[in-house]
Amino acid sequence: MKPRMDAYAVAPGAVTLMVEFSKKVEALGLEPSLLELIKIRSSQLNGCAYCLHMHTRDARAQGETEERIYLLDGWRESPLYTGRERAALGWIEALTLISQTHAPDEDYAALKPHFTEEEIVKLTLMIGVINSWNRFAIGFRAIHPVTARSDAA
């Protein structure tokens, strides 16, 4: 895979706005561990290797376990996630795959016991942010850092 462009080099002002917006959304008060689960799960659904590389590393640095990271794709079958996380993960899937799901009422209703309405807005905003970053990385073919060469390279 070959990168298409360096968006920051081409339009630094636009990318800086996105970075600043992302930081402001992250500072709205949702717990950092949940923010990383949002970023990882959305990136899994979108197939964004660049973002997966970044956010699994960030999650580990914040103390997330390897087991929870590895099993995130199968969260529905795993007891490792709290009710709050499970409700958020359902909403992440509903919004990331919105053209298929149309944000079902049951996924929205599952949020109510675990999140205030204000938190639901913040959660939804963060899902939108990571989906935008996924589109930047995938659309411009960003390549994650490679620390070890493999036969595939």
Write the topology of this structure.
Layout (H helix, E strand, L loop, with lengths): L6 H4 L1 H15 L5 H15 L2 H13 L4 H6 L11 H14 L1 H4 L3 H7 L5 H23 L14
What is shown here, in short?
The protein is mostly helical. The protein has helices at 7-10, 12-26, 32-46, 49-61, 66-71, 83-96, 98-101, 105-111, 117-139.
Describe the structure.
By secondary structure, the chain is mainly α. The chain has nine helices and no strands. It has helices at 7-10, 12-26, 32-46, 49-61, 66-71, 83-96, 98-101, 105-111, 117-139. It starts with 6 loop residues before the first helix and ends in a 14-residue tail after the last helix. The model has no long low-confidence stretch (mean pLDDT 95).
Global shape:
globular
Helix content, binned percent:
55-70%
The number of distinct β-strands equals 0
Largest sheet: none
Distance separating the two termini: 10 Å
- Which structural class fits the helix and strand makeup? mainly alpha
Keywords:
mainly alpha; 153 residues
